[in-house]
């Protein structure tokens, strides 16, 4: 039941912060600022040195079941290439797993432990394979290779597919992706680049607030 609830919360929140950095502390600070700004779904990529330390620290502070709104956040792991990495991240507190590609063994492990898994896909064939493996949300990656209209094309033969574009999503096109049928979006460098250049991590909170508001407005326009 928790897996279903997590998927519902992820799609309700709608914006996933994909965080990279040079150190675990840097990523934790970026995550805290993103959460402060309203993005409550945090993906720490395994390209971060000692990424599991960042996941563990964030998981001890935030929880998807927290009653205190300031402590509510869903902490997950990204850039997962294999089941071994997925299991290590889950044991460190990760509540969802994201990969850049479709790895059946990783999906099987996540299904075994009832953890939401969002593998990267580029083609209808890969999306169909993901659905057959029991994936609930597929990551369309890299999103910057596509236009939002691709979702309508995919949903022609696969209307049951839940698609989350990642890469190339911006404040300018977020509404277009949601209007096209995306269940959520992943935001990466656009959220953190300015803060990394200036050293002012409060800029992440400001940008996160803009993304959160843009998602809410896009969803409201559909109702």
TrEMBL record:
GO terms for molecular function: (R,S)-4-hydroxy-2-oxoglutarate aldolase activity; 2-dehydro-3-deoxy-phosphogluconate aldolase activity. It comes from the Bacteria. Pathway: Carbohydrate acid metabolism. It holds the Pfam family Aldolase. PANTHER family: 2-DEHYDRO-3-DEOXY-6-PHOSPHOGALACTONATE ALDOLASE-RELATED (PTHR30246:SF1), 2-KETO-3-DEOXY-6-PHOSPHOGLUCONATE ALDOLASE (PTHR30246). Belongs to the KHG/KDPG aldolase family. This is Bifunctional 2-keto-4-hydroxyglutarate aldolase/2-keto-3-deoxy-6-phosphogluconate aldolase. It comes from Paenibacillus chitinolyticus.
